[in-house]
Write a structure and sequence with these properties.
Elements lengths: L7 H4 L15 E6 L2 E7 L6 E5 L8 E2 L1 E2 L4 E7 L6 E6 L4 E2 L15 E2 L22 E4 L1 H4 L5 H5 L2 H7 L3 E4 L3 E2 L12 E5 L6 H13 L3 E6 L11 H4 L3 E6 L4 E3 L7 H18 L4 E4 L13 H16 L4 E4 L21 E3 L2 H10 L14 H9 L3 E2 L7 E2 L11 E3 L4 H5 L7 H4 L2 H12 L4 E5 L19 H14 L14 H5 L11 H20 L7 E6 L4 E7 L3 E8 L10 E2 L5 E5 L9 E2 L3 E8 L2
Helix pairs in contact: 7-8, 9-10, 13-16
Length: 613
C-alpha cells in the first residue's frame, strides 16, 4: 500500500480536528481487513518508524510528520492481531503511545485491534444522578478469574442488591500481573490481564442490558514508574511538576501543552465513545498540575459536554477532590468545571473518628462527633479549589448533597491499613449496620466497596507486581513514609503475590447474609423514598446529640415524616441505652427486639416512617 494513500481525515490537518474526535485516529486503526493507518503524536521527533513484529527483514514504515506534531502513515498486508513497535528518531522500539492493546505487557509490542463491536445498547439512556448507587470494584479481585467476562457473570448479584452503577478501578495497562491500577502507562489499552478490548465491551454491554451504568476511574495526574516510555515519544512529561507516584503530564508546556492536553482528553473520549462507559471518575484532580489559564480539568469537561450535546449521550463526570471543591460542580460560565459529582471523604473519616478515635487512615485529623455533625449539616469540612491549598472551613451554607459521593469504606480506606482490614473488622458488624443506615439514607450519592454488603472477611491490600527490584523496595518504603501513623511491621508486603490473591472477595454465599439483606432493604427503601419525594435535601433537618453519639436525620414534607436515628460509639466503650424522639411506624431496626421502641444501643440504627393521608 502506498504510505501516502491516507484517508481524508489523516490527510487533513489533525490540529483542527475537534478534540472529541481525535481519539478515533490516534494509534493504529483498521481501514480494511488488511490495511491499517497509524497516527502518533510526537512533536519533538523528526521521524517515527513502525516496525512489524516478526517481519525483521521488512523495511520499517516511516510516518509523515504533519502540523501539530502528528506523524501519520498507512500500511497494507497487516490486520487485527498484528503486533508492532514505534521507534522515535532511530531509538529503541517502544509501544505506541496510543496503543489499544499490549498482549505481552507494557514493555512489549502494541497490537492492532478491530475496534468494531456488535453493541446491543442503542436504547440505553444511562442512570440519572439522583438514582446513582455506586459499587466500586477491582476487576482482578472481584472474581476468582479476575477478568472482564467473569465480572459480567456477577452483575445480577449487584442488580438484586440495588446497585445502579459499577465503578471500575483503573484498567489502563501497567507493569506486572496485578496492580491497583494507578500505575497505568499505556492509557488507551485495557489491562491485558483482564482480557481483550472485546471482553471489556462485552462487560459494559451486559451491564447496560441489565440497567447498570459503568463508570471508569481514570488517572491523569501521573504516569506509572515502570514501563512509562512516553518521554521517548515527545514532551509528554513535565520538567516542572512532579508527584510522589510518578512523572506528571506536561499539561502547561508553553509550546506543546495544547497537543498534550488533547492527547489526554482523547483518552477520556476513547473510553466514553468507543467503550460506551457512562462516566469517568477522575483521580486526584488536585494533583493534576496545570498552570494554564484554563485548567485541563475544565477543558476536559468542556469537550465531554460538547460531545454529549452532539451525540445526545450523557456522561457522568466525577472528581476525586480529596476535599470539597466549591467550583468543581459549578457551570463553566460561572468559573467552575461543570462536573456532576465529587468524592467527599469527610463523611467517611468523621464516622471513623467516632468509632475508632485516635486512629487515622489519612493525613487529616478529625474530631469525634463534632465533625460528623458539621458534615451532615453542610456536606463537608475541608475545602480547596484546583489552584488552592486544602484547609478546614466552617461553612455557613450547605453544599448540594446530590453532587457529593459518600462512603463508609473504599479502596484507599481499606488498603491504606497495613493489613487491609475492612470497617467491620476494625469495628464490628453492628457498627457497620448503623453507619450504613446513615450512608444510604442521606440525599448524597452512596458508594459501596466490593464485598462490603456481605462483610467480606478477605482483606483488600495494596498490591503491585513491578519487575524492577529497586522499584519494589521503593514502593515498600514509600508506603511507610506516606502513612507513618501505622505499624507496618505486621503488614503484608505489597510486592507479595498473596497481597493480591488474598484480596479476592470470594462468593457472596460465604459472607454475612443478614448484612446483605440489611443493605438490600436499605437500598430498596432509599429508592422508594426518593421516588415519593421525602428523601430530599430540602426536607432534611439534622439533630445531633454528640455526647451520646446520636445523629438523627429528620425528613419532613407536606405528607410524610421520615426519621433515621443512628447511634455510633467506640466498640465496648458503653452499653447503655439512650432515648430519642421519633414518630410513625418502625420500619427498620439494626438490632431488633433488644430495646424499647424509642431507645438506641451503641452502634444501633432505627428508621421510622409516618405517612399522611
Amino acid at each position: 500500500m502506498d504510505p501516502t494513500a491516507l484517508s481524508v481525515s489523516l490527510m487533513n490537518n489533525l490540529v483542527s480536528l475537534p478534540s472529541h474526535e481525535l481519539h478515533r485516529y490516534l494509534g493504529s486503526r483498521l481501514v480494511s481487513e488488511s490495511e491499517v493507518e497509524f497516527c502518533v503524536w510526537s512533536p519533538t521527533v523528526d521521524c517515527v518508524q513502525i516496525y512489524i513484529e516478526g517481519r525483521e527483514d521488512q523495511k520499517p514504515l516511516a510516518l509523515q510528520k504533519q502540523d501539530g506534531g502528528y506523524h501519520v502513515g498507512a500500511m497494507d498486508s497487516v490486520g487485527a492481531g498484528t503486533c508492532y513497535y514505534c521507534s522515535f528518531d532511530g531509538g529503541p522500539k517502544r509501544p505506541d503511545p496510543a496503543s489499544r492493546l499490549q498482549p505481552n505487557g507494557v514493555h512489549g509490542p502494541s497490537q492492532i485491534v478491530n475496534r468494531e463491536f456488535a453493541w446491543s445498547d442503542s436504547d440505553w439512556q444511562g442512570v440519572p444522578r439522583h438514582s446513582l448507587v455506586i459499587y466500586e470494584l477491582h476487576i482482578g479481585a472481584f472474581t476468582e478469574a479476575g477478568t472482564f467476562r467473569a465480572a459480567a457473570a456477577r452483575l445480577d448479584e449487584l442488580l438484586d442488591l440495588g446497585i445502579t452503577a459499577i465503578e471500575l478501578m483503573p484498567i489502563a495497562d501497567c507493569a506486572g500481573r496485578w496492580n491497583w491500577g494507578y500505575d497505568g502507562v499505556c492509557l488507551f489499552a485495557p489491562n491485558r490481564n483482564y482480557g481483550t478490548t472485546d471482553d471489556l465491551k462485552f462487560l459494559i454491554d451486559a451491564a447496560h442490558a441489565k440497567g447498570l451504568a459503568v463508570i471508569l476511574d481514570v488517572v491523569y495526574n501521573h504516569l506509572g514508574p515502570e514501563g512509562n516510555y512516553l518521554g521517548d515519544a515527545g514532551p509528554y512529561l513535565s520538567p516542572r511538576h512532579h508527584t510522589v507516584w510518578g512523572a506528571a503530564p506536561n499539561f502547561d508546556d508553553p509550546q506543546h501543552g495544547f497537543g498534550l492536553r488533547r492527547f489526554f482528553i482523547a483518552n477520556a473520549m476513547n473510553w466514553l465513545e468507543e467503550y460506551h462507559f457512562d462516566g469517568l471518575r477522575v483521580d486526584a484532580i488536585h494533583c493534576m498540575k496545570d498552570d494554564s489559564e484554563c485548567h485541563v480539568v475544565t477543558e476536559l469537561s468542556q469537550v465531554v459536554r460538547a460531545w454529549s450535546t452532539l451525540t445526545k449521550r450523557s456522561a457522568v463526570l466525577i472528581a476525586e477532590t480529596n476535599v470539597f471543591d466549591p467550583e468543581i460542580l459549578c457551570p463553566i460560565s460561572s468559573g467552575g468545571s461543570d462536573f456532576d459529582a465529587q468524592w467527599c471523604d469527610d463523611f467517611l473519616h468523621s464516622v471513623f473518628a467516632i468509632v475508632r478515635p485516635g486512629e487515622h487512615l489519612c493525613h487529616r485529623r478529625y474530631e469525634s462527633g463534632l465533625d460528623l455533625d458539621q458534615t451532615l449539616r453542610t456536606g463537608y469540612l475541608h475545602e480547596a479549589t484546583l489552584r488552592e491549598e486544602r484547609g478546614r472551613v466552617h461553612a455557613d451554607a450547605s453544599a448540594d448533597a446530590g453532587g457529593l459521593i459518600y462512603s463508609i469504606q473504599h479502596h484507599d480506606f481499606i488498603g491504606n491499613h497495613p493489613l487491609g482490614k475492612r470497617l467491620h473488622q476494625l469495628t464490628s458488624v453492628e457498627t457497620q449496620r448503623a453507619a450504613s443506615a446513615l450512608l444510604l439514607l442521606l440525599p448524597s450519592i452512596p458508594m459501596l466497596f466490593m464485598g462490603e454488603e456481605f462483610c467480606c472477611e478477605n482483606p483488600f491490600q495494596f498490591f503491585v507486581d513491578f519487575e524492577d527490584n529497586d522499584l519494589q523496595t521503593a514502593v515498600i518504603e514509600g508506603r511507610k513514609r506516606e502513612y507513618p501513623q501505622h505499624d507496618w511491621a505486621t503488614g503484608r508486603l505489597p510486592t507479595d503475590a498473596a497481597a493480591f490473591y488474598d484480596s479476592k472477595i470470594g462468593s457472596v454465599l460465604n459472607g454475612d447474609g443478614e448484612m446483605r439483606a440489611w443493605y438490600r432493604e436499605l437500598l430498596a427503601n432509599r429508592k422508594r423514598w426518593i421516588a415519593s419525594g421525602i428523601l430530599q435535601q430540602q426536607h432534611l433537618l439534622v439533630d445531633s446529640r454528640i455526647d451520646n453519639g446520636i445523629f438523627v436525620l429528620c425528613y419532613q414534607n407536606t405528607v410524610s415524616f421520615l426519621t433515621v436515628a443512628v447511634r455510633l460509639s467506640v466498640l465496648g466503650h458503653r452499653n447503655d441505652t439512650c432515648d430519642f424522639t421519633a414518630s410513625g411506624e418502625l420500619v427498620m431496626d439494626s438490632c431488633p427486639d433488644r430495646t424499647s421502641l424509642l431507645q438506641l444501643l451503641p452502634n444501633h440504627a432505627k428508621i421510622f416512617l409516618q405517612e399522611g393521608t
